[in-house]
Amino acid sequence: MSRPDLPTTGLAVLLIGAGAMHLVRPEVYEPIIPAPLRGRARELVLASGAVEIACGAGLLVPATRSAAGWASVALLAGVFPANVQMTIDHGRRAQRKGTPQAAGFFAGTLARLPLQWPLIRTALRAARG
User: Predicted confidence band at 24 (pLDDT cuts at 50, 70, 90)?
Assistant: First the structure.
């Protein structure tokens, strides 16, 4: 059995941790569901949490690593609009509040957006073996 490399293991841990948080505290994630989907926000947050855990666990097992890699690519691409929505919301909040904390949080969400691509690249590498 081959062990996953460090980036794949890191992605797996990240996905499992994020998925667990979605299940434990779904109310934190509901506001970042894009507006057209907010009527089903709780269900989407819980489903994405379960999928994140399944993808992360699958990345750790050689027999499921490729399928989990492809599923992780789809998941990471699928949640990107929620990350964009979070950035938009925090940008508006920063403008409204005008505090350094609000500006700093907005900057953090903005900086996070391009980090999605290395995660997708890692998932692709796992998918391709």
Answer: very high
Q: Which two tokens stand for residue 95?
A: 């403008």
- Tokens 């796992």, located at residue: 126
pLDDT at 82 over 90: no
| 71 has pLDDT over 80 | yes
The DSSP secondary-structure symbol of 129 reads -
Q: Which residue has the tokens 């890692």?
A: 122
Average pLDDT over residues 87-111: 95
CA–CA separation, 12 vs 14, rounded Å?
Answer: 5
Residue 62 CB coordination number (10 Å): 12
103 by DSSP, 3-state: which? helix
Q: Residue ranges of the alpha helices (H) in the chain?
A: 6-24, 26-29, 41-60, 65-97, 100-112, 116-128
What single letter denotes the amino acid at residue 45?
A: V
Helix (H) or strand (E) holding 104: helix 100-112
Determine the Cα–Cα distance for residues 35 and 95; give it in Å rounded to an integer. 20
Dihedral Cα 106, 108, 114, 116, nearest 10 deg? -110
The residues near 117 (Cβ < 8 Å, ≥ 6 apart) are none
